[in-house]
Design brief:
Blueprint: E1 4-10, E2 15-21, E3 24-25, H1 26-32, E4 51-58, H2 63-66, H3 71-75, E5 78-80, E6 85-93, E7 98-102, E8 107-111, H4 115-119, E9 126-129, E10 132-135, E11 144-150, E12 154-161, E13 166-174, H5 184-193, H6 197-219, E14 227-234, H7 236-243, E15 263-266, H8 267-270, E16 279-282, H9 292-300, E17 310-314, E18 318-325, E19 328-335, E20 355-362, E21 365-370, E22 378-379, H10 381-393, E23 416-418, E24 424-429, E25 434-437, H11 438-462, E26 471-475, H12 476-481, H13 484-489, E27 501-505, H14 507-517, H15 519-530, E28 533-535, H16 541-550
Parallel strand pairs: 1-6, 11-14, 14-16, 17-26, 19-28, 20-22, 26-27
Antiparallel strand pairs: 1-2, 3-6, 4-5, 4-6, 7-8, 9-10, 11-12, 12-13, 15-16, 17-18, 18-19, 20-21, 23-24, 24-25
Helix pairs in contact: 9-14, 9-15, 11-16, 14-15
């Protein structure tokens, strides 16, 4: 090995030659070459996010690096740039950019390629407001942008450096509009009864976003005045409320939305406390019940240019389902209700510390895990799905959704209890009084039947069968946490698709970031919304028939 290491950086479009002293950290080599990669810990080796694919003569991988990388990544030549040193000839492959989004459970990475690479060639994005170009760049200040995913239950905010084309801060919080109801229909109902509630619901969400933006900016040594643009995405109702537009017509036949967005609004008109003239782009929506979050998700998942038949599912209060095929895009929204978000469940709660998040058979017993390994305080969505699956496998639940009697439960009889009304329950933890009731199971049946019947309806519309589906993309934070086998066991997703399911995480937030940083994904989102085929499930006889059929569980195994 010589005193210097010669290398090449390949970004997929061009190759740049570099030279560094032998033993130099790869992260320093990349920085010297003007290549920016995620390293929130400053290169101290504590975040594990500076992943890059590299070949050549490099320092040996130590345990402190290996602990961040799985076998698959290691086999592909992935290294941590802060832990890897170049010793002789090497080649770095920048085939794709990766955004890392923090959730309550873990960090999930999303690949946004090739769009982000293309954005790097024109990072100074020109936005248009009222037909006039607006230069958002500020030479005397930071040039920041916000990407906001407004969920019915949770909200995710991403602070982006628009000059560098990267996320510099993330934060999530519970949607404060929950005081007006757990679902969008409840919030619309409040507005219909009390028109002043629209302004109040808008104020709650905008102020919460503003406070979060201020916190993220402060952590970067900036102020909200440095935020020069924003992108909002969410379901159609959430976007209407955020914009201050009455969504009441969405809840009345023929269920027509006042607007499907794909438009800019001024920050000061909306009330967001950032640079007053900053444009806020509200993502285009497909229909009244398939919103901008799905458009952003499709962009992040690369499904705007499909090469296979892919199902895209965001499981929430409204289960939005997309089917991307070579012949077209098909969408529907299934009214699943808030059961999987812990609402309307006796011991239900959000996925916070103490929530039972996993339930599983353990020898002759039934065990569970909680978020944060804390004492059980209730059960969240992933635990609810697991619990139903375990009950079926243990013979504690029959095909109709009836909890079995103790004398039918065999070796699992100790897990059958009674509530205050004498109705049977599935006892998860007797000491902390965490259990599932028959009414809870009915809520699960309603939710899973709606999602599954929606899947079959789109397949029928497209003239496809389950065997034609190459993969199923589960979007959203909830989709990242559920046990896929359990989801198939209870019939949330058809059994035939087990093994084809991929959890993609918060694709809505990742897509919003992509739209914030470049014109191409913004145009792609509008294009797919304009050419999609939307099915209103309430008017589909096929859906209603499948919905009734999918209320049943598959035959139990027994204990």
């Amino acid at each position: 090995m010589g005193a210097y290491a010669n290398g090449t950086i390949d970004n997929g479009k061009s190759r740049v030659s570099v030279r560094a002293e032998s033993g130099t950290r790869l992260l320093d080599v990349l920085r010297a070459a003007g290549v920016e990669i995620a390293a929130p810990c400053g290169g101290n080796g504590t975040c594990g996010k500076c992943r890059v694919r590299v070949t050549g003569v490099l320092s040996e991988m130590g345990d402190d690096e290996r602990c961040f990388l799985g076998e698959e990544e290691t086999a592909r030549g992935i290294r941590l740039a802060c832990k890897c040193r170049v010793l002789d000839d090497f080649e770095v492959h920048l085939e794709e950019d990766v955004l890392h989004v923090e959730t309550d459970y873990k960090t999930v990475s999303y690949t946004l390629s090739p769009m982000i690479r293309a954005m790097r060639e024109a990072l100074k994005t020109t936005f248009f407001f009222d037909g006039e170009p607006l230069d958002t760049a500020a030479p005397d200040a930071a040039n920041l942008g916000l990407a906001v995913d407004i969920g019915t239950t949770t909200v995710a905010v991403y602070l982006c450096d628009m000059d560098m084309g990267r996320v510099v801060g993330t934060c999530g919080f519970r949607n404060p509009q929950a005081s007006y109801g757990a679902d969008v229909i409840s919030r619309i109902d409040k507005i219909m009864k009390e028109p002043a509630a629209l302004k109040e619901e808008q104020r709650l969400i905008i102020e919460a976003i503003g406070r979060t933006a201020a916190e993220l900016c402060a952590a970067c040594g900036c102020t909200v005045a440095d935020v020069r643009a924003a992108v909002f995405c969410g379901n159609t109702v959430m976007q209407h409320i955020a914009a201050g537009i009455d969504p009441s017509s969405i809840a009345r036949a023929p269920f027509t939305a006042p607007t499907l967005f794909g438009e800019f609004y001024r920050a000061d008109a909306v009330g967001l406390p950032i640079f007053p003239a900053a444009p806020i782009y509200f993502s285009p929506c497909f229909a009244s019940y398939v919103g901008g979050d799905i458009a952003c998700g499709m962009i992040a998942a690369g499904l705007d240019r499909p090469s296979d038949n892919v199902l895209f599912i965001d499981i929430g209060t409204n289960g939005e389902i997309g089917l991307s095929t070579k012949n077209g895009l098909y969408f529907c929204s299934a009214a699943a209700g808030p059961a999987f978000e812990g609402a309307h469940i006796e011991c239900g709660m959000a996925g916070t510390a103490g929530a039972v998040s996993e339930v599983f058979l353990d020898g002759d017993g039934i065990a569970y895990r909680t978020v944060g390994d804390a004492a059980p305080a209730g059960i969240c969505g992933s635990g609810i799905i697991d619990a139903a699956a375990v009950m079926l496998d243990a013979g504690l639940l029959d095909e109709t959704g009836r909890i079995t009697d103790k004398d039918e439960a065999g070796k699992y009889a100790s897990y059958i209890g009674e509530d205050a009304d004498g109705d049977l329950t599935f006892v998860i933890d007797s000491e902390h009084s965490v259990y599932m009731t028959g009414k809870d199971i009915r809520e699960v049946q309603l939710a899973k039947a709606a999602i599954c019947a929606g899947i079959y309806t789109l397949l029928d519309k497209a003239g496809l069968s389950l065997s034609d589906i190459t993969s199923v993309v589960l979007a959203g934070g909830f989709g990242s946490h559920i046990n896929k086998a359990s989801a198939c066991r209870i019939g949330l997703i058809p059994q035939a698709l087990d093994g084809k399911i991929v959890s993609a995480g918060n694709t809505a937030g990742a897509g919003a970031v992509a739209i914030l940083l470049g014109k191409e994904p913004r145009e792609a989102a509008k294009t797919i919304c304009g050419k999609s085929d939307y099915t209103e499930l309430s008017q589909s006889a096929f859906f209603m028939e499948k919905y009734i059929e999918e209320m049943m569980f598959e035959e139990t195994i027994g204990g």
